[in-house]
Amino acid sequence: MRKKYIVKLKVKEAIEKRDITQKKLAEMSSIRESTISDIVRGTRTVINFEHLSKIAEALQVEDIRELIDFE
After folding, report:
1. What CATH number does domain 7-70 carry, 1.20.1090.10, 1.10.260.40, 3.90.1150.10, 3.40.140.10?
2. Helices assigned H by DSSP within the chain
3. Is 63 exposed, middle or buried (CB count within 10 Å of its CB: 0-12, 13-18, 19+)?
4. What is the pLDDT of residues 19-69, one digit of tens each?
C-alpha cells in the first residue's frame, strides 16, 4: 500500500513567531488579506506557488520547511 502524504502549511505559525498580523503580511507580500486569511485557516484547497514564494520572501524565510510540512 502506498503512503499518502498530507501537505500542511504553517503560515499561521510563521506570522505568530514574527509577531505580525495577517493584514501586515498581506501588505508585505502584496497578497489580498482574504487570501492570506484562507491560507492561515487552511480553507484554501489549492495553493498558488507564487503566493507561497511571496509569503516566504516577505517573512524572509531561509528554509521553506518553516512554511511547509508533510505528514
Report:
1. 1.10.260.40
2. 11-17, 22-29, 33-41, 49-58
3. exposed
4. 999 999 999 999 999 999 999 998 988 889 999 999 999 999 999 999 999
